[in-house]
Amino acid sequence: MTTQTDAPLTAAINTEDLQRLVEFAQLVTSAQDAMSDDIVTRLARVMNEGITLLDRLTRNEGLMTLLRVLDQPESQRLLVGLAEALRVTSRDIAVTAPANGGLIDLLRGVFHPGTQEGIRLLSLLGQHLNNSLREQHRRGS
Amino acid sequence: MRILVVGGGTAGTIVANNLARRLSAETRSGKVRITMLSASDRHMYQPGLLYVAFGQMTPDQLYRDQASLLEASIDFHVDPVKQFQLDQKKVLTEAGKVHEYDILVIATGSRMVPEETPGLNEGAEFFYTEASAVKMYKRLREFKGGKVAVAVGVPHKCPIAPVEVMFALHDFFKARGIRDKVQMKYYYPIGRIHTIENVAIWAKPEFDRLGIEYETLFNIKEVDAKNKILKSEEGVDVEYDLLIVIPAHRGMEVIERDNLGQGGWIPTNRHSLTMNGHDNVYVVGDTTNLPVSKTGSAAHFQAEVISENIASIIKVGEPVRDYDGKVYCFIEAGHDRATYAMFNYQNPPDLKPPSKPMHWFKVAYNQMYWTSVRGLL
What we know:
Structural class of chain B: alpha/beta
Number of helices of chain B: 11
Largest interface: A-B, 14 and 16 residues
CATH topology of the largest domain in chain B: FAD/NAD(P)-binding domain
Number of strands of chain A: 0
Strand order of the largest sheet of chain B: 5-2-1-9-20-19
Oligomer: heterodimer
Number of strands of chain B: 22
Structural class of chain A: mainly alpha
């Protein structure tokens, strides 16, 4: 005989919710049975090392500054440019003849406009790096 | 401001790391200097010794390089303290160096002293050092059956260890198929089977269920190793085939030598954790004489209070927290089940039925400990 208090339970059975609960319980039981102390140890070790690594990375002032800079649009263009340069350089180097050595070859390279622009880019980077390091030392940080 | 942390165990390491994090700007600018003096360049996960004694861990799994656990701003020296000169705010080390301080944190820990009980070293097995835990495992491996006596000295580190040993022994002998050939009996020094009443209430039916016998009001007097007899102060003689003892502990020798505290336990304010009569000296972990368990968790909770208070004193001139006596102990209950006891000065523990997820939590914590001492958890 169905009473008023039985009604919600009956409804749950009818709507297959109870079946889903049973399936969920079976899933948890099966996960428990499959788990071993070794698995838990390995998972915990990975988590432990992961948290430690993340902590070190997020408290590394230099790395955080680099991430902030890389987040800016012009820096992203630089990254795209760097990625493209890596791709083309890798392709070009494969088909470029080995250097002969000597001053003549060196001078021939220097007269090339691309080489001059490359040196100028590296020089600019060097100047800014130098200025930043000098400023940090001056501030005592 | 010179902060000197003496001791590189759980308590000292957490205090130093928490301070280094809280005072990172001050240490970078040179306003604060944190120095740690330790007796060893290695850090041991001490609760793991019980696992070593039962072949569930190897000793190498218990250690990490101490320097790798410390914040880079901490000035770390392997050079134990030889003498405390609190009136002059300095300590002398074994290497002959002098370290002056403005704030001192004493975290020198405790040690077992089986040599103080006649015959104990010769006749009993322990697991409170690496060598003794390995020796106990070898002894257990060769044990074929007979009477196993487990006796408890006071005071001792990790109050839950005695009951955990019983459950672990039961599992070990059962797994080897000799449980029916082993008679296990537990001897405890007070009038119930555990110092914490609710743990005693919980453990008693568990012992009964597993066929573990027990005798209370049994204080170890001496061991006749030759004839395999354990004698109590109460005049009871117990014959055994295998004797496992939780030995009595003391604080470190330097604490007793310098008259900082009887038995090596320093009189400590139960809330501020400062040494009585010395507001600039903090005591943490096993070294205190507080009426709480000598466990890693107590050390952890105390270390957090101390580091927060020292940091706030430096930043705003006043401490901000009191220690409430909090302790959290996992209890491995055998059959891959565990429970826990959490309590403080005001509230006794309320033990839940053991479960497998709690056992996994303990297994996971064996790894998470390293995150914890770094001051991350």
